[in-house]
Amino acid sequence: MRYAMVIDTVRCVGCNACVVACKTENDTPEGFARDWLRYVVTGTFPDLSREIYSERCNHCDNPPSVHNCPTGASQIVEGGLVVVDRSKCTGCKACVASCPYNARYVHPDGHVDKCTFCIHRVRKGLDPACVESCPTEAMTFGDVDDPDSEVSRLIRSRKVHVNNPASGCDPQVYYLT
Amino acid sequence: MRKWTRREFIRVSGTAAGAAALAAGSGVFAGAGAADAKHVPGLDPGTDGDVVPSFCEICFWKCGIQVHVKKGRATKIQPLGSHPLSNGMLCPRGLGGTGMLYDPDRLRTPLVRTGGRGGQKFREATWDEAIDRVAAAMKKIKDTHGAEALALFYHGTGSGFFKKLMKAYGTPNMAAPSYAQCRGPRDEAWVLTYGHTVGSPEPVDMAAADCIVLLGPPLGETMHHTAVQEFAGAVSRGADIITVDPRFSIAAGKSRHWLPIRPGTDIALLLAWIHVILEEGLYDSKFIEEHAGGLDLLRKAVEDHTPAWAYPITGIRPEQIVATARVIGQRRPRSVIHPGRHVTWYGDDTQRLRAVAILNALLGNYGRRGGLFVPSKPELQGPKWPKPAGPPAGVNDSFAFAGEGVTTSIVDATLTGKPYDIRGWFVYGTNLPISFPNPYRLEKAIQKLDLLVAVDTMPMEITGWADVVLPECTYLERYDDLYACAWKKPFVALRQPVVEPLYDSKPGWWIARQLAKKLGLGRYLPVDDMQEYLREKARLSGLDFDVLAKRGFQLVPGPPAFVEDGLSPVFDTPSKKIELYSETLEAAGLDPVPRYTPHPQAPPGMLRLLFGRVPVHTFGRTTNAPILSEIMAENQVWVHNAVARKHGLKRGQMVRLVNQDGKRSDPIKLRATEAIRRDCCYMPHGFGHGDKRLRRAYGRGASDSALITRFEVDPLMGGTGMNVNFVSIEAVEA
After folding, report:
1. What is the DSSP letter of B179?
2. B672-707, pLDDT tens digit by residue?
């Protein structure tokens, strides 16, 4: 089993529903968020295009944040999910510095925090909060090891890329264009 | 238990055996990962609680929500599954609604003004005293000047009871900025053309459309939730999207055709489109023959309005106009021009929307899939209450085609005493200094009043001017009247309290009821137990309150909304047909077919000021709210790169905008971009709050309203076109 997220940049309007859904689901502290939007406008007027990316931890197959964690707090659990055990985290920021996606922050309580793909919901058979709420149905969550899953089918049938493939981390958030 | 090295752990953790071996003290997991779930402390944020269904009030779309409540606290809001309007999804504002509930800056008790009006000096008062004061002042106005000298400004679901109160009191003067400052022109254009308003939510079946034209509503920034859902689906399907906007909006970025039109010239483009569609026979002649009148007169009126004529006016090349007209025509009937919502731009807005209505009619999309469907609103039966006598004439009766109250007519009457004096304003749920054009003129009117009462949840600017402030509880703490929604599947929804009202805030219905009793009008509003009233109303309407309370809504069978399902179109116009040519307008001395009139363009060195929406805020209502204000705390002004360079301005620097009347904005960050024309600038609305009690929003960004000193009044219905101000930009010295 390998969990992944597929985000359709054609459907996404960049409204931030994913960000707000995450903030309230995961009760992140004021001023911090586990996911965010990135907008890229290219071209010159009036020949322009815009790309919109809803971004978060990529739950990489080869995560430097886990490799570089000195206490074992950053770890991989079922489905390849990368999580932080806050009881073991000292807030040393080694993982924050080694994540090429800038997906981690230090929680005011002292531990590092990041997207968990809403593991507490996934374990109940639910989609992550961002996926559930998305008004444009741009986000799909599932098991890429299962060839019949929606994520697998989307990855097979559409043009797909990951952010910064050169990172070598094998990120597991896929973008459809 | 064996200790794993980190490397080993990584290697094995992907396998069920490895992770299961590590499982320690795991809870009960029901999901897909149950077998190999490992307990890691802190992974469950614990925000789940008991769930209460209701509907959202952050904007007018009224989506279904379910609110989690844990130990008396609303922890989070999630979408209400299978909701007939919001389809189990939610926009960022709805998701962030608990921020409004727990905003520490909320109004907590009734307030009575102690200093001069607008000086924002108040003392706390009891509800008894506040209600006594308001009722006494209302009585005095009625005794001295007549009931019509009191006006109600309102917005939102809670306004129903205040309207009932005002009717009983005897005033006809009730108006919402959502009419004359927003959607009024399109509703009247529809009445003139089709015999009925567009209504809300807008019945545009984008879910099945092959061509969608957006003249205005920048979906994706404007979060009309279901519309955005359907729009995204249409984009994904590869539908032809045509966006007409001087700015490269989010929607423009999703469009096959973006027409960056010169501001103020949309009617010329519409007339040229109509010209091509008639000329090339792309319209639905059978539908028009059967259901519409005035085709020949329309044809004659647009005879000269060729794409070549429209080009120098609009800046859109003739071949682009022809190409898009053909797409619009060829995709019919699954081709639709969205009627828009915030359409008060230039003062000839009803005529522009008439052109939109006519173009839709030519496509034969009325009641068709992929076009404009015709939903019915469930009829609700309330308990029988006595009906107050009909009120005298309202102050906006000078606008022959105004179907609702005109806010600015009330301001005019207050300032001029004509057609008669207005002495008191009762303001429910609307922040007039932000929603009206020319706040300076508004202040002058306010200073003439004998009474200004404001009911709100937050210390919005208008409350700072009030004599008495009445704190309402939020939509998560109260019942409101039942909501009957006209949509593809009509339904009735219940707003119910999720938590007890915080502080000394009260529901709107309760406030209206206390005032009615104190004014001796209690028999017109006989509700002391709102749940009992709603239960009875549900029963009389053939609904079940307990089902509503448990599920949040109930579907109500209605007549078909689509021709494909058996709808037969009926048009309640004088001719009983769609009026392509309006004899009603002709008789009133107005253009029977929309005509393009040039509007002044920006003088050299100045830019036209345009404003709009962002997806995480509703008007200025949410910019102070925790959660949503975190996502976007201040606005930026969009200016084309070349214009910024010319003024020696750098991306991201702070600037001030100065309008043609010398009004200077608060500092605002410059967003130098390619994504806008060079003759205009754009800023999101609702920022730059000036009331210090709004601690998060105060002084963050700049207010467009403060720069809108000029407006063009729509002669048909009194709408205020607000895109008629010009600004220059000056650097703010660091």
Report:
1. I
2. 999 999 999 999 999 999 999 999 999 999 999 999
Rounded Cα distance, B463 and B728, in Å? 31
Say if the Cβ atoms of B76 and A69 lie within 8 Å: no
Q: Measuring CA to CA, which residue among B524, B528, B494, B522 is closest to residue B510?
A: B528
User: Which residues in A lie closer than 8 A to residue B19 (C-beta atoms)?
Assistant: 77-78
Could you give the C-alpha distances from B72 to B283, B457, B655, in angstroms and in order? Answer: 59, 20, 45
- Nearest Cα to Cα of residue A173 among A122, A123, A125, A101: A101
Q: Please state, in angstroms and rounded to a whole number, the distance separating the CA atoms of residues B667 and B82.
A: 45
For residue B236, give the 3-state DSSP assignment: helix
- Give the pairing type, strands B122-124 and B335-337: unpaired
Query: Interhelix angle for B266-279 vs B307-314, to 10°?
Result: 160
Contact B414, B448 (CB under 8 A): yes
Tokens at B348, concatenated: 């000839």
**Cis geometry, peptide bond prior to residue B333 (ω within 30 degrees of 0):** yes
The full set of domains in chain B, from first to last, is 6-36 (no CATH), 181-375+564-587 (3.40.228.10), 607-731 (2.40.40.20)
What is the sign, positive or negative, of the torsion defined by CA atoms of A30, A34, A37, A40? positive
Q: Residue B218: exposed, middle, or buried by beta-carbon count in 10 A (0-12, 13-18, 19+)?
A: buried
Which amino acid, B41?
P
Tokens representing A24?
């309230």
Annotate A111-169 with DSSP letters as a single string.
SEE----SHHHHTTTPPPHHHHH-TT--EEEEETTSTTSHHHHHHHHS-EEES-GGGSS
- The half-sphere exposure of B369 on its side-chain side, counting CA atoms within 13 A, is 5
pLDDT tops 80 at residue B6:
no
Q: Which residues of B touch A50 (CB under 8 A)?
A: 248, 250, 253, 675
What's the CA gap between B423 and B410, in Å, rounded? 10
- Mean pLDDT for the stretch of residues B523-535: 97
Q: What ranges do the domains of chain A cover? A: 3-176
For residue B174, give the 3-state DSSP assignment: strand
Tokens representing B4 are 């794993």
CB-based contact A26 B47, cutoff 8 Å: yes
Residue B734, pLDDT score: 67
Provide the greatest CA pair distance for chain A: 53
Is the pLDDT at A42 greater than 90, yes or no? yes
Nearest chain B residue (CA) to A87: B41
Give tens-digit pLDDT for B447-463. 999 999 999 999 999 99
Q: Which residue, among B166, B162, B154, B150, has the nearest Cα to B424 in the 3D structure?
A: B150
Nearest CA among B595, B72, B578 for reference residue B301: B595
pLDDT of residue B1 exceeding 70, the answer is no
Q: Residue B605, class by beta-carbon neighbours within 10 Å (0-12 exposed, 13-18 middle, 19+ buried)?
A: exposed
Residue A82 phi/psi, 5° resolution? -95, 120
CA distance B21 to A133: 34
> Which residues in chain B are contacts of A26 at CB distance < 8 A?
45, 47
CB contact under 8 A, A15 and B616: yes
**CATH topology assigned to domain A3-176:** Alpha-Beta Plaits (3.30.70)
Three-state DSSP class for residue B574: coil
Give A 95-114 residues with CB within 8 A of chain B.
111
Q: Which residue of B has its CA nearest to A116?
A: B43
CB A155 within 8 A of CB A1: no
Tokens of B38: 């490992």
Tokens of A177: 């264009």
Q: CA torsion, points B290, B291, B292, B293, in degrees to nearest 10?
A: 60
Tokens of B563: 């021709």
Q: What is the ipTM of this complex?
A: 0.97
